[in-house]
Amino acid sequence: MQGKKIGIIGSGSWATAMIKMLCENDQDKHIFWWIRKEEDAEYIQQFKHNPTYLSGVSVDLSITTIDTNAKNVVVNSDIVILNTPAAYLKDALRGVTKEDFKDKIVVSAIKGIIPKDNLIIGEFLEQHYAVDIERICVVGGPCHAEEVALGKLSYLTFGCKNLDSAALVASFLSSRVIKTILSEDILGIEFGAVLKNIYALAGGICHGLGYGDNFQAVLVSNAIREMRRFVAKVDGDTSRDVNTSAYLGDLLVTAYSQFSRNRTFGNMIGKGYSVQSAQLEMNMVAEGYYASACIQEYAEKYAVELPICDAVYQILYQHQPASKIIQALSEKLT
Ligand SMILES: NC(=O)C1=CN([C@@H]2O[C@H](COP(=O)(O)OP(=O)(O)OC[C@H]3O[C@@H](n4cnc5c(N)ncnc54)[C@H](O)[C@@H]3O)[C@@H](O)[C@H]2O)C=CC1
Ligand SMILES: O=C(CO)COP(=O)(O)O
């Protein structure tokens, strides 16, 4: 086995899109891919496709080992990419120890907060697995798995305090159609991604209620300012440029794209679906639903006003009528 060994933990759309990026990138490597369900692993082994997500993507089994044991994948890899929804990460890593993560570069492709622990993934890795901040990398930027599957030109931002590590990870995912950007702003990229999901959910709710593009534009304009205020409050950095692709870019793609899980989920809520029925209707996870509850605690902790996040929380968790809450929100937007 030549080159670096790269592990992927996750078997949904984004993990499958990353498998495509890795398989199409021409650097020497071997991939270890954790698949949650035994039957899916057998299917991929036989047919070289994920049966459930992005089934058009073909898996190069000459450089990919499929495994249903996450510990094996972590232990065998030099670089481990975490790619489950945040709510399932602890479950996916059951049995994996701090020792297993020792000296690895650990990459989070997750855009969510671990519910109950209320930790973004970087914090979770430091606290639960003693992963040093220099070895934690996050992947952000506007990039839908479905467009990666279609070979559409996309840009990813790799955030790491150690830019050499960010560059190393990026070098395995880049290609003619995947451009990479490096950044040291792990915290900003992580929180930006968490918040944009909540804002896209708000946009979906408004669309479902019948608000038009004029209002959506005002909502998104307020959302990026709310994001900047929040992240600056968390780390005290007021110089961050949120108009770049990892922040504004990701907010725009999630707020407007037909592929967005969060917008689709919000749209159903705006149309009157209950949270449960909207979740059942989608075979995918809208991270913004979980993040909405978690971010309330952060807002209190950092004493920062987040009117859009508050509105989403009142609709999803306090069962307030969406039309009344969005009407009240609309009075606060500028
Ligand atoms: N889909 C996309 O285009 C992008 C997704 N992301 C992020 O990637 C992360 C993964 O999301 P997706 O791949 O989109 O997920 P998805 O919504 O496509 O798939 C759901 C995933 O959850 C897993 N799952 C369902 N029930 C589970 C359980 N009980 N225990 C463990 N796992 C379970 C499924 O196996 C599947 O991997 C999220 O944080 C998302 O925000 C980031 C960028 C793009
Ligand atoms: O983060 C994403 C694209 O950058 C995916 O999230 P959505 O599917 O909600 O847009």
CATH homologous superfamily name of the largest domain?
NAD(P)-binding Rossmann-like Domain
Helix tally equals: 16
CATH class of the largest domain: Alpha Beta
Total beta-strand segments? 10
Helix content percent band: 40-55%
Main sheet, how many strands, which sense, barrel?
A: 8 strands, mixed
Unreliable stretches, pLDDT < 50, 5 or more residues?
Answer: none
Radius of gyration: 19 Å
Bound molecules: 1,4-dihydronicotinamide adenine dinucleotide, 1,3-dihydroxyacetonephosphate
N- to C-terminal distance: 58 Å
The secondary-structure class comes to: alpha/beta
Mean pLDDT, to the nearest integer, reads: 97
As for the number of domains, it is 2
Strand arrangement across the biggest beta sheet:
3-2-1-4-5-8-9-10
Shape: globular
Strand content: 5-15%
Sketch the topology as an H/E string, one letter per element.
EHEHEHEHHEEEHEHEHEHHHHHHHH
In CATH, the topology of the largest domain is named: Rossmann fold
Q: What is the architecture of the largest domain at the second tier of CATH? A: 3-Layer(aba) Sandwich
Binding site for NADPH: 13-14, 36-37, 53, 111, 145, 261, 285, 287
EC number: 1.1.1.94
Protein name: Glycerol-3-phosphate dehydrogenase [NAD(P)+]
Pathway: Membrane lipid metabolism; glycerophospholipid metabolism
